[in-house]
Amino acid sequence: MDTLSFARSKPTYRVVLLCREIENAKLNIEDLETFVVVADAGGVSPAARRLGVSKSIVSRRLFRLEAALGVQLLARTTRGAALTESGVAFREHAAKVSAEIEIARDTIMPTGDLRGRLRIAMPLSLGPTHFAPVLAKMAQRYPQLQLHACYSDRIVDLIAEGFDCAIRVGYLENSNLLAKRIGPVYLKLVASPSYIETHGAPETPKEVMAHQALMQGTESWKFMDCDRVVTVQPQGRFKSDNGIALTAAATAGLGIAYLPDSLICEYLRSGALITVMTGYPPPPAAAYVVRPPGQHPVRKIQVLTEMLIEHLEQNPCLRGRAEN
């Protein structure tokens, strides 16, 4: 076996050869960024949806990139696209280059100007009412910025699903994501008068276990016992991944619910819902902007975060009230 054949048979040497090809090739940065999105999305169609362009444009960019490199990066299948060995090696480097280019663009961009694409995941329960006005204001202020928002109460995988950042409300789970607090959120344990009349109201966290809980899934509920946090694992037959649906179930008398005050304030004012177990309030929560780990947050995310903080400070009713 000659030296070149031996080199091509080893993954490490293939990476070296690929890097040499990259150095010698005149690459289009848009093609490079598109490849990263396709690799992360698992195919041309989902990548096109993320980028907001047609599948033919994505395919054209991939073809151009592969032609410039002289290697096949993706193996097309009926189910999507899988990275070739060269594609796996190239994806890591392409992602780093794309990130550095984004930082460089931010650095040289005129002050006050934003462009490119910002893909954001927001909660469906509060996003349209609490945070969507900020996106509209941001789009008006920066006409060259593309804003793509996805509203869902499920916890999305930012990296796998191609989001630049997300807004999350409540208590953050331990993760490698970077988080910036944008404002406080007040939670309450509530039930309808009809439920309380029939089943009574829990007076301690331990008594919560004897009640029908309206939950998003298998979450824990936290309460303050003086300066100590008490955690319970509630049980119930009604579950929904949407806070508005849980509010409707609570007003219908199906159980007790653990919800943001800003979501239920009108029902509390009208008497359709009543705060219960006030001696053990939920600990303070917050709203956050979270993003994948990295040394430098892109300026688009910084600007969005600053606008959200300002919006919540100017509209305290959106955060709810600390008092019972």
Describe this structure in words.
With 324 residues, the chain is of the alpha/beta class. It is 44% helix and 23% strand. It is built from 12 helices and 14 strands. The strands form 4 sheets. It has a 5-stranded mixed sheet with strand order 4-3-5-14-6, covered by helices on one side. A 5-stranded mixed sheet has the order 11-8-12-7-13. It has a two-stranded antiparallel sheet with strand order 1-2. The protein starts with a helix and ends in a 10-residue tail after the last helix. Residues 1-16 have low confidence and may be disordered.
How many E strands? 14
The shape, in one word, is elongated
Instruction: Enumerate the strands of the largest sheet in spatial order, edge to edge or round the barrel.
Output: 4-3-5-14-6
Q: Main β-sheet: number of strands, strand sense, barrel status?
A: 5 strands, mixed
Distance between the termini: 79 Å
Percent helix among the residues?
A: 40-55%
Strand content: 15-25%
Uncertain parts: 1-16
User: What's the rounded overall pLDDT mean?
Assistant: 83
How does the helix and strand content classify structurally? Answer: alpha/beta
Order of helices and strands: HHHHHEEHEHEEEEHHEEEEHEHEEH
**Count of DSSP-assigned helices:** 12
What Rg, in angstroms, do the CA atoms define?
Answer: 25 Å
Index terms:
324 residues, alpha/beta, 5-stranded mixed beta sheet, 12 helices, disordered N terminus
TL;DR?
With 324 residues, the protein is α/β, with parallel strands linked by helices. Helix content is 44%, strand content 23%.
